[in-house]
C-alpha cells in the first residue's frame, strides 16, 4: 500500500463499518490514527488489528455529541503523537434515524437528537480539532455526509437537514481557514454494505441502486477517496462534496 500519509496524525471520530475501514486505510498508508467511538471496545479491537499488521493506532471512547469527550480525544492525539494533521468526523445518531419521518410526523425529540448529534457534534469536532490542526501549519478536515443533503427523500427530514448544515460548516472552514493551510471536504456515500446494515443484502437488489448495477458500495470505497483527500495528492481539493454512491445521484 502507498505511504501517502506517512507521519500524519489523524483523528477518526466515529467507528463502525465505514469508520473502522477509514482507520485501517489511514494507518495502512502510514498515518498515526486515533480511532474514537462510543463503542470503545470495538474501537480497541480495530486498533489492535492495525497494530498486529505493523500500523500505529490508538483507540479511545468518543461521544460525538459531548464536548469534553471530543476534547479528550484531540488531546490524546496531540499528547501521544505530537499534534494533529487531520480530522474525519464520521458518526450519526442511528437510533434517531429509525424514527426520522417527515416534517409533519417526526417528533421534536427525534429532530432535536438528530441535530444534537449529527450537526452540533460535527460543529464541536471542528471547533475542538481545528486549533490543533492550525498549530501544525494546516491540515485536512473531512466530514462523512449523505445524498440526503441534496435529494428530497420522503423520509429522514432531520437527517437531511443536519447533513445540509454540515455542508455549510465545511464551506465555512474552507473559506475562513484555507489561507492558513486548512482544507475541508464532505464525502457523501451511497448505500454502503457493512456489518451494521445486514438487512440491505436481503431487502434491496443492487440493480435498483445507482448506475453501477453489479454491487453495493463497500467501506473501502469511502476509505480510498478519503485517503486521497487526506494526502498531499489532494492538496488542491477543498470546499467540495464528493459523492461516492455508484451514480445514485447526479449533480453538476
Description of the structure:
This protein has about 250 residues and is α/β, with parallel strands linked by helices. It has one domain (about 10-240): NAD(P)-binding Rossmann-like Domain (Rossmann fold, 3-Layer(aba) Sandwich). It is built from eight helices and seven strands. The chain has a seven-stranded parallel beta sheet, sandwiched between helices. Helix 1 (about 15-30) runs parallel beside helix 2 (about 40-50). It is globular. The two termini are about 35 Å apart. Residues about 200 have low confidence and may be disordered.
Notable characteristics:
252 residues, 7 strands, Rossmann fold
Strand composition percent: 15-25%
- Described by the principal axes of the CA atoms, the overall outline is globular
Strand order of the largest sheet: 3-2-1-4-5-6-7
Number of DSSP strand runs: 7
- The H/E string reads EHEHEHEHHEHEHHE
- By CATH reckoning, the class would read Alpha Beta
Helix content: 40-55%
* Rg from Cα: 17 Å
Question: Sheet with the most strands?
Answer: 7 strands, parallel
Number of helices: 8
CATH architecture identity: 3-Layer(aba) Sandwich
Classify the fold: give the CATH topology.
Answer: Rossmann fold
CATH-assigned homologous superfamily: NAD(P)-binding Rossmann-like Domain
Number of domains: 1
- How far is the N terminus from the C terminus? 33 Å
Mean pLDDT across every amino acid position:
92
List low-pLDDT spans: 198-202
Give the structural class: alpha/beta
Q: What oligomeric state best describes the polypeptide chains here?
A: single chain
Amino acid at each position: 500500500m502507498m505511504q501517502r500519509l506517512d507521519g500524519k496524525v489523524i483523528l477518526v471520530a466515529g467507528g463502525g463499518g465505514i469508520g473502522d475501514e477509514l482507520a485501517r486505510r489511514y494507518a495502512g498508508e502510514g498515518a498515526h490514527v486515533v480511532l474514537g467511538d462510543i463503542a470503545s471496545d470495538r474501537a480497541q479491537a480495530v486498533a489492535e488489528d492495525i497494530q498486529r499488521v505493523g500500523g500505529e493506532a490508538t483507540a479511545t471512547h468518543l461521544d460525538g455529541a459531548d464536548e469534553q469527550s471530543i476534547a479528550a480525544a484531540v488531546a490524546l492525539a496531540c499528547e501521544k503523537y505530537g499534534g494533529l494533521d487531520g480530522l474525519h468526523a464520521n458518526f450519526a445518531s442511528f437510533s434517531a434515524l429509525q424514527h426520522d419521518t417527515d416534517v409533519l410526523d417526526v417528533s421534536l425529540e427525534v429532530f432535536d437528537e438528530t441535530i444534537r448529534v449529527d450537526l452540533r457534534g460535527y460543529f464541536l469536532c471542528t471547533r475542538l480539532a481545528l486549533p490543533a490542526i492550525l498549530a501544525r501549519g494546516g491540515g485536512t478536515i473531512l466530514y462523512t455526509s449523505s445524498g440526503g443533503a441534496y435529494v428530497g427523500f420522503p423520509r429522514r427530514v432531520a437527517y437531511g437537514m443536519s447533513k445540509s448544515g454540515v455542508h455549510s460548516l465545511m464551506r465555512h472552514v474552507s473559506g475562513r481557514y484555507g489561507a492558513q493551510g486548512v482544507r475541508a471536504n464532505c464525502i457523501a456515500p451511497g448505500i454502503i454494505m457493512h456489518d451494521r446494515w445486514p438487512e440491505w443484502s436481503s431487502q434491496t437488489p443492487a440493480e435498483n441502486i445507482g448506475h453501477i448495477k453489479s454491487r453495493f458500495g463497500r467501506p473501502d470505497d469511502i476509505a480510498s477517496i478519503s485517503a486521497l483527500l487526506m494526502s498531499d495528492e489532494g492538496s488542491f481539493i477543498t470546499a467540495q462534496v464528493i459523492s461516492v454512491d455508484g451514480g445514485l445521484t447526479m449533480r453538476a
